[in-house]
Amino acid sequence: MKSLVVLVGVVFLLAIFLVAGLLLNGYTLSLLWEWFVVPVFTGAPKLSVIPAIGIALLMRCLTYRLPLDIEEKKRDNREQVVRIIIHFFGNPAITLFFGWILHFFM
Asked: 3-state SS of the chain?
């Protein structure tokens, strides 16, 4: 029972950090857009936080790279294949999920 409580706490904290990270990422992109894109391209509109989060998610989909692990050589082929499959299906699924939620706020 105690391990279940710890697991729920860890999942809750991860969710909080994920949402906070998305908000910070969107705010940063919107501020950088306002500082650098709007002055150069005078017709460019300002970018609010919610669309900036969506654009950041889109950029992540387009530029994501599978992280190289030094320990990769020590893993057997089965573990490597499972890890790659999780990254190729998990990352787009999570990104799509948050993009789907985000588009309701547009």
From this structure: CHHHHHHHHHHHHHHHHHHHHHHHHHHHHHHHHHHHHHHHCCCCCCCCHHHHHHHHHHHHHHHCCCCCCHHHHHCCHHHHHHHHHHHHHHHHHHHHHHHHHHHCCC
